[in-house]
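Hello Y.,

Per our agreement to keep a running log of every chain we model this quarter, I'm adding this entry. I've kept the format consistent with earlier entries: sequence first, then predicted structure.
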Amino acid sequence: MRKRAVLILIVLSLMLSTSACVSAFASSYSYVTEYSDDIESVGGASGAEIKNYSQLKNAINDIVNSGQTAGELSFSGYTGSVRDDMAAACYEIKTQTPMGAYAVEELNYELNRIASYYTAEISVSYRRSIQEIEAVVMLNGVSSLRSYVTEAVNGHSDKLVLRIFSSIVNEEYIKDIVSSAYFNNPLVSAREPYTGVTGYPTEGVNRIYEIELDYGMDADELTELRDRLNGRIDVLCKNVTAKETWRCSLELAQALSASFREADSGEGAADTVSGALLEGRASSMGAALAYKVLCDEMGIECIVVRGRLGTLGTQDHYWNIIGIDGDYYHVDVSRLDSAGAERAFLLDDVRAWGTYMWESDSYPVCDGPLDYTELSAPVPEETEPPVDSPEPSETVSPEPGPEPTEAVPPEPSESVEPTTSPEITESPEPTDTDEKTDDASTVEPTDPVRSSVIAKNHVNN
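Predicted structure for the entry above:
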């Protein structure tokens, strides 16, 4: 009886053990099935297990891009070594993908083998908050990048993070966009914004850029400075009386040139609009920026040129290009006094090149017809003949006719008989010398025949 009871207990024990094993296996199998659903939710192949290195990277990258701290992967029929590829994929995601390089602090995994397949548990720790990850702006091209950064600068954003796929964009390219935004709107900042740019990863065509901007002043200080600058701009522009665009441009340049002394670049505020307009000292950069602001106020198209001065191009220099009636000209306010207006105002590319050097592809072609030397030439005191005077062609080439200085006597048949003198019937007999003189003086001197008859009569008497 005792043996039978022991046998029953052994059978019951085996049955319980088998049930436990089935339950454990079923739990593991359920775990893999649940992962298949998770892979689909983060962008993996729909319900499929990972079979190659490309799918492995995509699955881990989906976990990171969505900001998840953990994920589960399963492998079946994998091509290659799962162990080797897991290590390589985690390292590549962390160091060579935009979000991994930008946000991931640690990327670890635990690999398990169950029968003929593997499972992997992924754990991720981040050095960015979920808000920072979600704030990354996706851009689809260079034009959208330029618009986005320019708008951010004009709006005084101090930080922006963007992601772009481009072979030409890098840290220096973005700094140039910020600089161009400032040069197109110098009043946006107290000085050219300091720009810090960090790319993630360190190289490649698909990157995240973290951009930090410093405008030199806080918002309240910038507002106060702009108010002062606008007051000064109003004063200078109201003194411009010219109607023609070129004369208006010249008056602005002359007024600005008279308001500052030349200073070296980097000397205090010399490179800024406030240096030229408020502090009375400006480098070529400060002068060009200030002239840009004045022209903008007057509605004159104006561009700041960044180039070099001198035949060897060794000195950084700034000047302007202005548009007049669809044509463009170089203007250098910083050299208006030292070089003279004929060498610094309304220059075309041909006359400017050599003294100045610039990247011609980046600026409009300057080939307008205006020339300062011709426009400023003194006007003669009398440019038109008097109203009553004949035209020069009438005095130089008179119409054909009798010579005005020679009197030609008429034919004898027309005036007097050839053998006798004509009787004078119109004039009375003279009584004395005075009267004769008077009578003679009344005869028109322009009639040579009558003059000779009167003279003969006088002699006969």
